[in-house]
Sequence to fold (405 residues):
Amino acid sequence: MAKSKTRCIGLLTSGGDCPGLNAVIRAITKVAIHEYGIKVIGIQDGFRGLVENRTIPLDEAAVSGILTRGGTILGASRDKPHSMPVGDQLLDMTGAAVETYQKNKMDCLVCLGGGGTGKNAFRLNQKGGLNVMTLPKTIDNDVFGTDITFGYDTAVGIATEAIDRLHTTATSHHRMIVCEIMGHRAGWLALQSGLAGGADVVLIPEIPYDLQRIAEYLLERRNHGKRFSIVAVAEGARSVREALEQAEKKAKDKKAKEAIKYGKNAALDDLKTEREAVDAIRADLPLKVRKMHDEIMAYHAVQEPMASRLARQLQELTGVEARVTSLGHVQRGGIPSAFDRALCTLLGAKAADLLAEGTYNVMVAYRNGACVPVPLKDVVGQRKPVPLDHPMIGTARKIDTCFGD
Ligand code: F6P
Fold:
């Protein structure tokens, strides 16, 4: 067995899940145990499990047969140690997280997660003195410092297949179908699946759209005898007006910035009638229950599909019958692609090698075809939007894809 500076690690999965998490858990655990004799402790439900000291031993039997399984055997949550709902309060639980780490004699906390997880892990290092390591997970591909995140390739495949399927039905009925694709505030997923699936219009947050331009493009298609259209829209896409409003509010009011996080404040106006109905039902609930629901709402805001509003607007402007498909969490479920399985195994194995060397406080990134450690201090807090000069945008434009600008 090779020498190792690390004897014991804690492993958790945090933030939105994605296909490939189990493949990484398997690779780290296998290499850590076989090559280096490192003890691996699984922490349940992300940082919440760390704070509550909920752990399971990860050994060969525990990670057997999980390579192809979606989700995470450890469970995940979006909880942050420094601001965690406990009872009816938001508390800083950093101390409890440090306690679990020490009690279990961990030498490093390995966190599989995206940008938010990176920030939380780095904060635990800075404020709690823990050694940490992150591996870049998300279907959004928006983690700074790595060429690609695991889970992204699988999601691109799912979204592309959906666009393919929408093509056949849109063609039969001579319709426009607006397909909403995840991606948080980045357009990677919509762009790549839109390009691969041959979407006619691709709308991404990085390029604010003008409704008039899209309508003109769709009408022109119809005048050229094309009686169907596919609009692939990223959940974070916004019109030029919304982008300006967001920028203004951002400058003025931090709270307003939160409220328009997904650019959906305009869509919420349309829900007034339902709002009133919901309020009427809520009025009958005991005050204590209502308070509890408010806290849940504040913490887990429910997202409204933006594609519905866009489809209605485009139908009004063009007279072309529109339908909506919001892919949602389908993009995060099921088995990882072959590419993701291989990527996860490479990243996980590299993580174990780095732990054995005693390399901490890094993200294990994938750059130029290799897994490399990148200091967390150089990547946390930064985002990776699609650059406007990205070849996928240029190429899509050349084949007459409309970006609404
Ligand atoms: O970050 C992954 C992601 O699926 C985003 O694309 C999406 O905006 C978000 O998570 C949805 O989060 P939740 O699962 O908490 O609704």
The radius of gyration is 23 Å. The chain is about 45% helix and 15% strand. The longest strand covers residues 8-13.
